[in-house]
Known about the structure:
Layout: H1 2-24, H2 31-62, H3 64-69, H4 75-112, H5 117-142
Amino acid sequence: xxxxxxxxxxxxxxxxxxxxxxxxxxxxxxxxxxxxxxxxxxxxxxxxxxxxxxxxxxxxxxxxxxxxxxxxxxxxxxxxxxxxxxxxxxxxxxxxxxxxxxxxxxxxxxxxxxxxxxxxxxxxxxxxxxxxxxxxxxxxxxxxx
Length: 145
């Protein structure tokens, strides 16, 4: 199990360390070197996560008391809970896609005309309302179970 922890932690630590080093001593490095290093770190991290998932599946399958305790939730209830979480997740993604261009445009407008700050807040609030509508839908659906 310790090799698995090393396999997960080492790429993350190496990526963070190289990022800190490049921040403190900025210099021109070949992009191919950076790209290959990052891909190697991501591959090691993915291998570590896949190994952790496989080891976790084996432990869960071997544990009989865990399956007896989880007998209270059926497959239908689990799918219903996933369906309830879906509106919040999709609405949050939609709000994020809306807030990106609105936020950058708002910052550009505020830089030129600071008196437009209130109007830009209204536009950002309207975009954020999409996520709130998804949350309200999930709460209403949760009350139906």
